[in-house]
Design a protein that fits this description.
The structure is a homodimer of 317-residue chains. Chain A has 317 residues and is of the alpha/beta class. The first copy, chain A, contains 14 helices and ten strands. Chain A folds into two domains: 200 residues, Rossmann fold, CATH 3.40.50.1100; 91 residues, 3-Layer(aba) Sandwich (Rossmann fold). Chain A is 46% helix and 15% strand. The longest helix of chain A is centred in the middle third of the chain and has 17 residues. The first copy, chain A, is globular, with a radius of gyration of 18 Å. The N and C termini of chain A lie far apart (46 Å). Chains A, B: It comes from Aliiroseovarius zhejiangensis.
Chain lengths: 317, 317
């Protein structure tokens, strides 16, 4: 297991800068009053493909040597990693093969195809996915870019908090959602080196709280088929992300689905940005733990903005 | 009739800078491909009270002398001007009286009150509004700040396009929605002086096209009770805004309500910002007139972001 270093993250930032956006920070006097804290929202939903995952994906894609680049990249994902990897591969002009369950939403498949990704469908089971992926990789020779348990991906995600501390001084806390732990690991990598005084809080849906339970138990515990509105956060920790979580995260807070939906609506209304349920988990946990954050400067990573506008979670449609 | 000058606009910017946000520009590769143009969206929906109207309102409020300031300001409005004037008055700590029809949405009344504005309700008719407003003004001595036909307001709105041309070079077009004409007049004031090569296009709902018909006829024509989803654009031109529109606007383009709703959804999905139907009229007209804008650099003012998240126009709820 290779653990990415500060130098890897700094090299990643130089490598991906031409291909990603330096996303802005949004603030709201209203939200500051509501929480008694100073909140700084880093808007990764404003990346062109709508998610921070373009950072790790671009780092992997643009780090390939010419020979490997010809064969392209491959992954399995039904979410933002699939579209962000396709997007990065399109920018470099190399093939991207994605294995997706045939049951994945049509909109997700459309986005991958719009960016030139080639989809191979599998059954919605782990065995079918692994079997199909092994076949695709053998046929194409594409370099496997795991959605989060990959040092190149973690180094790429770490560039987000690097920008955040360049944009905002003296953060007491950084709060980001946790699923597989890619963003949180990148945040740990960067802040433990460049801003060790900033505490890192991971925010997780109560209904998919495997990272919370792992953190308390001291070893990885995987959920069995978790179900939450925050559908970007369903996957379990792996060895590399567990390394960062167990060594550098201060605490993991959880919030219920109704609390996540309420926080999401507050952000849409007062920050006036379109973002995903997963990205609302940090604010939901801050609203739930006011004493922790009162009077503090808090950086929050809005991880993504790809949401079905016809099915908003606060509307019964 | 006093016509505001470039110096008035420059003074306005110095006056209001501490109280407003220098809002960011958003771009989208996807929207550029879709239109064949380079589009730059100036996000006035990111002002704290959610609309560009905080510029004109702040210029009026912070320009009052001490004696008048004690008596505060007054207006009649059921929209963003009411909340933005209340917000500016709250920042200066002076009274703000607003006459609103009793039928105005509860959310709009709540926002005005949250900012400390005092509401006096009238019947939803012009005669009742004028009578009630005269009474309120006589009682309070509040300085009348018209929503748009006021040189201080127009000078304030002009600061938006001043920032836009500082943020984006070489614009071929600036496109903004037109209702009463406050934003368009401010844009004319600024660009005719500082960027005379930039053509100004006003964008108007077909179903409230009084400005379009006035522009073609050469004199002000008022609509009788227009009805459109773009509910910020229902009011007619007045003498001061007519002066700017008739002298400096290159053309007025219109779009239907379904076209406005489609453009709004495209912006939410691809720019990932929350904005009002009124602010989607410019993109709707650009999509409708591709040959005009192809290959051009186009600045678009996203005028506001106060929208009822429970009643989105593309959903039948």
């Amino acid at each position: 297991m290779y653990i990415p270093t500060l130098d890897d993250m700094l090299a990643a930032h130089e490598r991906i800068k031409p291909h990603i956006r330096r996303t802005p920070i949004r603030t709201s006097d209203y939200l500051n009053e509501l929480t008694g804290a100073e909140l700084f929202f880093k808007c990764e939903n404003f990346q062109e493909p709508g998610a921070f995952k373009v950072r790790g994906a671009s780092n992997a894609v643009f780090g390939l040597d010419e020979e490997q680049a010809k064969k392209g990249v491959a992954t399995h994902s039904s979410g933002n990693h699939a579209s962000c990897l396709s997007y990065a591969a399109m920018l470099r002009g190399i093939p991207c093969n994605v294995v997706m369950p045939r049951t994945a939403p049509q909109a997700k498949k459309d986005t991958v195809r719009r960016y030139g990704g080639k989809i191979t469908e599998c059954e919605p089971s782990t065995s079918s996915r692994e079997e199909t992926f092994a076949k695709v990789q053998a046929e194409t020779g594409g370099d496997f870019v795991h959605p989060y348990n990959d040092p190149r991906v973690i180094a790429g995600q770490g560039t987000c908090s690097k920008e955040m501390i360049e944009q905002v001084d003296g953060l007491d806390f950084a709060v980001a959602p946790i699923g597989g732990g890619g963003m949180i690991s990148g945040t740990c990598l960067t802040l433990s080196n460049l801003a060790p005084e900033t505490k890192i809080i991971a925010a997780e849906p109560e209904q998919a709280d495997d990272a919370y339970r792992s953190f308390k138990a001291g070893h990885i515990i995987a959920d069995d088929a978790p179900k939450t509105i925050a559908d970007g956060l369903l996957v379990p920790l792996k060895d590399l992300t567990w390394h960062f979580v167990s060594n550098h995260v201060s605490d993991i807070y959880t919030a219920s689905d109704p609390e996540i939906i309420e926080a999401m609506k507050i952000i849409w209304k007062h920050l006036r940005i379109v973002m995903e349920p997963s990205s609302a988990v940090p604010l939901a946990t801050i609203l739930k733990n006011p004493d922790t954050f009162k009077g503090k400067r808090v950086g929050i990573i809005i991880t993504g903005g790809n949401v079905d506008l016809d099915k908003l979670p606060w509307l019964n449609t």
